[in-house]
Amino acid sequence: MTSRLLQNFNGGKALIVTTNRTAVEALEATLAKLGVASEFPAIEEGRVTLDLTGLKAERDILFVDGDLDGTLPMESDADSRCPPVPVIGLVGVEAPSRLKRLINVGATAFLRKPVHSAAVYTALFLGVNQFLLRSGMQSRLDDMERRRRGRRSVIKAVLALMTESGVDDDEAYNRLRRESMRLRVSLEEYCEEFLGRWAATPRVTAPEGPPGQRAGAK
């Protein structure tokens, strides 16, 4: 299934992380024409003051200068599979180490410095839509991984229902599936909840030995 491409960025907000305001004058001006407001997060002692938890993927776009010597936003979380917002790298020195840093913060498009206005929309279009594509793929992968882990609960729930109701595995599975559909939850979620209730239900333990035989009787 192909996602709809975003072409209008009006109402967005650009967070431009750089100390070289002169090199990005055309970027700020062009973004304003596209309806995107610009902000410049403070950089103190080589560290960027940026609250990542407050960013919104549907609104914010992060422009990061790869020539910064200090800590880049999200670089400490370089192993993260997907950044919280679209990231566009600002490239000056094309050293592999600096390009790698931009890749590590999740850049999906690049702009050469000094920025030329004619290149801004293309970078914005590619950066935002590649981010949306990656985010969608990551969400599907995460859902598949959750379902894979939940298969253990499904198997345990089937066995528990077979023991409790005396039905075969096909019937037990169908009962669980029908109930999960009725409650509009995933089969894995319902099975986890079912196992919790099943484990908490007291059961009568059958007496050992023939009826009437008392412990210790000879």
Automatic annotation (TrEMBL):
SMART domains linked to this entry: ANTAR (SM01012)
Any Pfam family hit: ANTAR
InterPro entries: ANTAR (IPR005561), CheY-like_superfamily (IPR011006), WH-like_DNA-bd_sf (IPR036388)
Xref: SUPFAM superfamilies: CheY-like
UniProt domain ANTAR: residue ranges: 134-195
Designated name of the protein: AmiR/NasT family two-component response regulator
